[in-house]
Amino acid sequence: MSTARTSYNNLPVPTNGQRIEFRDGQYVIPDRPIIPFVEGDGTGRDIWKASRRVFDAAVEKAYGGKRAVAWYEVFAGEKAFAMFKEWMPQDTVEAIKEFRVAIKGPLTTPIGGGIRSLNVTFRQVLDLYACVRPVRYYPGVPSPVKNPERMNIVIFRENTEDVYSGIEWREGTPEAKKVIEFLTKEMGKKIRPDSGIGIKPISRTGSQRLVRRAIRYALDHGLQRVALVHKGNIMKFTEGAFRDWGYELAKAEFRSQIVTERESWILDNKDKNPNLTIEQNAAMVEPGLEHAAEAFRQEIYAEVKEALDSIYATHGKGQWKKKVLVNDRIADSIFQQVVTRADEYQVLATPNLNGDYLSDACAAQVGGLGMAPGANIGDEYALFEATHGTAPKYADKDVINPSSVMLSGVMMFQHMGWKEAATIIEDAIARTIQQKKVTYDLERLMQGATKLKTSEYATCIIENMQPVPVPA
User: Regarding the domain with residue range 1-132+381-472, which homologous superfamily does it belong to in the CATH classification?
Assistant: First the structure.
């Protein structure tokens, strides 16, 4: 295999590596893949240096020199601006497209003005539509909740739409005035003239490809529950549509492998009482149905009949209990439930804004963003990243917890099929934490802990690495 270009950003491509290819919908991973990395701003320098040592040590431990990563630095953020007077050079984007899998540290994002979020830009220009955030507890990590071990959830957040799409105009600008005038005169909506305006696009395409990936993940990992999280009770034509499109996709593409929550009620009712009429079953599914309008009653009767006619043969008599359960939850409700009953949820699929909030809220229960990895995945490209900010006041002080980038590397190796390297890193991090050898953010909350520098923490993780069997 050979690369199409010999350099990006005036830096030569490693000659001792090969590019990852994409054939027939699958990655083809060489033994020495070229993987671009963005060091990151602020504390990124410290945490990347520590993480890279851990990655290389794990690959060596797993494969004994038969595999290795050819790291290739590309630039975005402050370092890119200092070198090229651009926050995100086009060469950086082209390099990630060429080599397909990349990893990055945190990047500067201004509030209220200046440059647009570089994280959002990466996701949109590479069409990395799924932000995947696994949230799990590592024993020994301090937590504000009584049973953090109940948290083991993977969040699939739509990455390219919603209010994060960047379609907005500042108050008082000609563009904002034009939109307000149109909505007022043509659509009959009342908007204060001194308003800033933002648009919330949510599409069938964007929603369904996210839900597809979430359900496939559940099936591939032996998980039983996928919840669609939305605020469709208020935003019916955006988030409500996300819910409806999600169910539509689940039934159309995974019919033999899934059951919706309402279908499970209908089937269970029938299993328990085979002589139940459609009307009786409907009344059990929808309490108070006898007081509803006739049109609504007929709608529920039709729903029950459709479920029994279409899937009772394949899902009835308890067979539905072996399927992936697809349900939905209102966003404000799920924020309570991930605290009070986190173990009832395994995979969450959600639009962009709610997914951002929910990911960080869940991470707070298991050690905070310093322990929270993230992946941005599309159909052909994947970018793994720290989920926290740049913390510039701690830059170059060798104190920040690098676990977010390290665990993002775990996700990257899993994505590449290098599961042995991923397991070695994750297990070594867990052992190090159980030994109470941690960075300051965890040490201040752990009785009897030893406070380590970023570099010392990486060294301890490497010392705790143990080999795992590699399939022949």
Answer: Isopropylmalate Dehydrogenase (3.40.718.10)
